[in-house]
Amino acid sequence: IHLSYYVTFLILWLLIIELLTTGLSNSISKVILAIVILVLSGLTIPTIFLQHIANGVFNIQPFAVVTNQLLEIILNNYILELHPSFYLSFIALLIINLAVLVWRYRQ
Q1: pLDDT confidence band for 59 (50 / 70 / 90)
Q2: pLDDT range class, residue 91, cuts 50, 70, 90
Q3: Which residue windows are transmembrane per the record (predicted)?
Q4: Calpha distance 7→37 (Å, rounded)
């Protein structure tokens, strides 16, 4: 469930950046968001090897839940059972993105 909320949150931020900025500021904003996600995800530091050394510091990073679930899916070949709210948020975000796409190209 946490994974779906983080993905929804990230897509909403990208949608906000797309709506509010244009040109070079759009690209710069997306790069800044990507850097923030990489720094806070635990991907820049090998968290698998250092979890026992740092007393769980890497587990409390904001996007560590997403990273751990993705690693679980990849390493165990495991499909997560998703909550119905994930599908509802996915459909809502898809509709919002299509509306933004139509709105952008009509201008």
Answers
A1: low
A2: confident
A3: 6-24, 31-54, 86-105
A4: 11
Domain that holds residue 51: 2-106
Token pair 């904001």 is at which residue?
A: 62
How wide is the angle at C-alpha 1 spanned by C-alphas 76 and 91, nearest 5°?
Answer: 110
Closest Cα to residue 65, out of 85, 77, 80, 53?
80
CB 3 within 8 A of CB 79: no
pTM score: 0.49
Which of 91, 105, 82, 100 has the alpha carbon at shortest distance from 14? 100
> Contact, 83 vs 7, CB < 8 A?
no
Helix 64-76 vs helix 2-20: crossing angle, to nearest 10: 120
Counted domains in the chain: 1
